[in-house]
Amino acid sequence: MPVAFETVRKIALALPGVEETTAYGSPALKVHGKLMACIAINRSAEPGSLMVRVDFDDRAELLAADPDVYYLTDHYAPYNAVLVRLSRVNPDVLRDLLGIAHKFVTRNAPATKTPKRRKVLSTSKRSRAKKSQ
């Protein structure tokens, strides 16, 4: 039975920090604002395909291991992504793949910066600063 995006959504939302959103007007899943997976909308992708972010080494392994499930088009080649035929992927394999994507996106996420606190000048320092201007 083919996997629907609803299954993808349920699996992904069980991972920490994943939120459902859109990318280019299509359903997408992001982790802390970074794209993890989405419905492939580029016309080069086959209908019913999912784009999943993975590093280039993992992508090469996936493509070699199961070319009936995973594929790539010229449009997606320069990006850390692989295309998945939802009609051919097993839900357990999809769970593992989304776990790989989650690790990829979170390990490349920049450290969250804490906002800088503004120094509050005392009244006497403020008046001296105004006078010097």
Please, could you describe this protein's structure?
Strand 2 and strand 3 (34-39) form a beta hairpin. This protein has helices spanning 5-13, 56-65, 91-107, 123-132, and strands at 18-23, 26-31, 34-39, 49-53, 70-71, 81-85. Mean pLDDT is 86; it is low at 111-121. The protein is an alpha+beta fold and 133 residues long.
Q: Low-confidence parts lasting 5 or more residues at pLDDT below 50?
A: 111-121
Which oligomeric state applies? single chain
Number of strands: 6
Secondary structure tally, helices? 4
Gross morphology: globular
State the helicity in percent bands. 25-40%
Query: What characterizes the major β-sheet?
Result: 6 strands, antiparallel
What share of residues are in beta strands? 15-25%
Mean pLDDT: 86
**Order of strands across the main sheet:** 1-2-3-4-6-5
Whole-number radius of gyration?
22 Å
Which structural category do the helix and sheet elements fall into? alpha+beta
The N- and C-terminal alpha carbons lie at a distance of 74 Å
Furnish the topology, listing elements before pairings.
Blueprint: H1 5-13, E1 18-23, E2 26-31, E3 34-39, E4 49-53, H2 56-65, E5 70-71, E6 81-85, H3 91-107, H4 123-132
Antiparallel strand pairs: 1-2, 2-3, 3-4, 4-6, 5-6
Helix pairs in contact: 1-3
Short description:
With 133 residues, this protein is α+β, with helices and mostly antiparallel strands. The chain has four helices and six strands. Strand 2 (26-31) and strand 3 (34-39) form a beta hairpin.
